[in-house]
Amino acid sequence: RSALGRKAAFSALSILVALLIAGQAVTVYFVYQQSGQISKLTKTSQTLQLESLQRKLPPSAKPMNKMRMAMVNMPLAMRDLPLAPSSDRMIMGPVSNKTEDQVKHLLLQADPRKMFPELKDDLMDNLKHLKKSMADADWKSFESWMHKWLLFELAKNPQKDEQKAIPAEKG
């Protein structure tokens, strides 16, 4: 009688394990079937985010077709680029003339999940906030860029009067 009970318990346990495995297989099957729809929804969401950003930008002072001649000498990064290369028609980028809007659009086109901090204080407070929020390697890279930018600005606008050097703030 005890051997019969063990066989029944073993059979019940085997059926339970088989049902659990079958349930996991069915779950994996349905998730795999939905992965195409998930990726399609992700692309749609990214496109909608870019369109939302484009709608928030102020309209240009001039129509785009009149500005084409003036944009011949503009750097490639500042030109309007299509939002999605896969679309049949060319969707133009932001129509704002502000450099910040053009660069933000270009960066979001490369990575729509990129976030930009709200910097509402003066320059020094904003830089301190950025230093706290950025990774150390990113901050060092940013410092290097600021140094090169300053050299560029100094070379662009030579100073006639010698001015005192501004000491660096120790932090």
From TrEMBL:
GO biological process, one term: positive regulation of cytokine-mediated signaling pathway
Keyword terms of this UniProt record: Glycoprotein, Secreted, Signal
Domain of life: Eukaryota
Organism of provenance: Struthio camelus australis
Protein name (Swiss-Prot/TrEMBL): H-2 class II histocompatibility antigen gamma chain
Keyword Signal: yes
Domain MHC class II-associated invariant chain/CLIP MHC II-interacting: 5-82
Gene Ontology cellular component annotations, sorted alphabetically: cell surface; cytoplasm; extracellular region; membrane
Subcellular location: Secreted
Domain MHC class II-associated invariant chain trimerisation: start-end pairs: 97-164
Signal peptide boundaries: 1-25
MF annotations from Gene Ontology: cytokine receptor activity; macrophage migration inhibitory factor binding; MHC class II protein binding
Main subcellular location: secreted
PANTHER family xref list: HLA CLASS II GAMMA CHAIN (PTHR14093), HLA CLASS II HISTOCOMPATIBILITY ANTIGEN GAMMA CHAIN (PTHR14093:SF17)
